[in-house]
């Protein structure tokens, strides 16, 4: 491939000296666990998002699972979400013993259809789990209204939407808990798995931290008091972020605004070049897209993919087929046609290369190839 969907090696070369120094700092300290990097990253991320609390965890999946557990979702409960996303959302719901309820999407954004969501609420519904698709946030104001009017918890999967905004407010403070992925292909990328939760609720923040740290508190390990032996305040899992990843992310966080600006400029260029050639992604009024993916929809997608690959251009079909059509969930009984808007999008969507490893000239090359492939 001449133009890659992701190029971690190129992004490493740009900031190699700072990244190497951050890793060396951790290794030289001897504190590769329960050190200073994780709490410092949590404070810096919370400040960037203007959130009260950020909790660093081991992955986006860990963030979703801890969030569901922290708000008390469990056996016999239902959680409403969408199927055109990663396995993590559905798997997290199953992991806490709850039932998955999928609803269809708003085709304009790929995000949850709020009316469809409200229509399937039952006495067993415990939480709503909208997903911010490709960097465009779900209609969180309406989701908040629905959650509050029915007495439900609201968890936002913003794993693809770090830096997205609604009415000038960054996602991260609009739900009871917001979950982020910081894995290598994301806006703020670790060199391995990493994630975070944000919340405005101190008690939830404390519980999520314990649930992700084998039920332990940081104070037990930070050296401020002399402790020996174990002290587990709740059950939990070993899902906290490690010190090296936190150090790397602290190095990259100051460049996040620049990264978002690059992504937005590239998305604007794609729209200029591809208008009239395919169904293009849009920003709804009052929303600022974070552009994790630039996803077009076309008929004859597979032929276009073959053409792009022949031109040396990478592409992907993110989260297709959707989860309700995956073999692992065949027993849940969602037949073909049960989520028609989700299924139509899944057959036609294609994500084009986008990100800080590319320049606008390369975006033009991709756009030209797409236009040629659709002739």
What does this protein look like?
The protein is of the alpha/beta class. The protein has two domains: 8-255, Aspartate Aminotransferase, domain 2; 256-373, Aspartate Aminotransferase, domain 1. The protein is 38% helix and 13% strand. It is built from 13 helices and twelve strands. The protein has a seven-stranded mixed β-sheet with strand order 1-9-8-5-4-2-3, sandwiched between helices. Strands 7-6-10 form a three-stranded antiparallel β-sheet, with no helix packed on it. Helix 4 crosses helix 8 (202-211) and helix 11 (301-310) packs across helix 13 (360-373). The radius of gyration is 21 Å and the shape is globular. The chain starts with 7 loop residues before the first helix and ends with a helix.
Count of beta strands:
12
The biggest beta sheet reads: 7 strands, mixed
What separation lies between the terminal Cα atoms? 22 Å
And the CATH topology of the largest domain?
Aspartate Aminotransferase, domain 2
Average pLDDT for all residues: 96
Provide the spatial order of strands within the biggest beta sheet: 1-9-8-5-4-2-3
* Count of domains: 2
Number of helices: 13
| Class derived from helix and strand content | alpha/beta
Which geometry do the CA atoms define?
Answer: globular
